[in-house]
């Protein structure tokens, strides 16, 4: 899984915020071609074609990746590499095992968000650790034309909005995201 691009270009003077300029390659979102879904606040996991579980891992420039790591993407600008490490050696192994112990948990190939009490302070409010299959992510109802910088900023910064952000899925597999914190007013 490659790093999902942010819908709007980051402000070079303040990388915590975005500008009202679409990131090249994400124009399809404004054209209404994608499906908007809830972005869960957890940690990403992968069940690969061989039935092996991995955890997402970022490796900073000059650092060695862990044993068994599989690179998925490399940012030429920052030098950061993103990839997968075997779940059993990640700091999330215990919580992942708990989530797998849920007898109602479905197992489909692909990516999941591991959420729960010991993940990122549990902003999702789960009682135990769970795996949310990204293809099952809750759809966000947006009206045609809502994909403007101003409208999305208003939606994401509304006090009633309680999710980490939005992820758009194009039918051809492309994705784009926008986090609540990206839209915060400076």
Oligomer: single chain
Overall pLDDT level:
89
Number of strands: 11
- The chain-level structural class is mainly beta
CA-based gyration radius: 17 Å
Envelope shape: globular
Give an overview of the whole structure.
The chain is mainly β and 186 residues long. It has a domain at 1-40 and 139-186. It is 11% helix and 33% strand. It has helices at 27-30, 93-100, 149-157; strands at 8-11, 14-22, 35-39, 43-47, 53-59, 70-74, 81-86, 110-115, 130-133, 165-169, 175-179. It has a 6-stranded antiparallel sheet. It has a 3-stranded antiparallel sheet with strand order 3-10-11, with no helix packed on it. A two-stranded antiparallel ribbon has the order 1-2. Strand 10 and strand 11 (175-179) form a beta hairpin. The longest helix has 9 residues, at 149-157. The two termini are 31 Å apart.
Secondary structure: elements and pairs:
Elements: E1 8-11, E2 14-22, H1 27-30, E3 35-39, E4 43-47, E5 53-59, E6 70-74, E7 81-86, H2 93-100, E8 110-115, E9 130-133, H3 149-157, E10 165-169, E11 175-179
Antiparallel strand pairs: 1-2, 3-10, 4-5, 4-8, 5-7, 6-7, 8-9, 10-11
């Amino acid at each position: 899984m490659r790093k999902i691009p942010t819908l709007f270009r980051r402000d070079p003077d303040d990388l915590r915020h975005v500008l009202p300029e679409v990131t090249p390659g994400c124009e399809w979102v404004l054209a209404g071609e994608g499906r908007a879904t809830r972005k869960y606040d957890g940690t990403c996991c992968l069940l690969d074609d061989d039935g092996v579980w991995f955890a997402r891992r970022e490796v900073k420039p000059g650092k060695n990746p862990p044993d068994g790591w599989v690179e998925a993407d490399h940012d030429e600008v920052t030098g950061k590499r993103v990839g997968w490490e075997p779940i059993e050696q990640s700091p999330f192994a215990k919580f992942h095992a708990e989530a797998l112990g849920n007898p109602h948990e479905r197992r489909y190939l692909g990516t999941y968000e591991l959420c729960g009490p010991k993940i990122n302070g549990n902003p999702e409010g789960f009682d135990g650790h769970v795996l949310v299959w990204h293809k099952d992510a809750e759809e966000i109802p947006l009206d045609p034309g809502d994909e403007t910088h101003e409208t999305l900023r208003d939606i994401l910064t509304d006090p009633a909005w309680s999710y980490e952000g939005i992820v758009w899925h194009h039918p051809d597999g492309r994705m784009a995201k926008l986090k609540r914190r990206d839209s915060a007013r400076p």
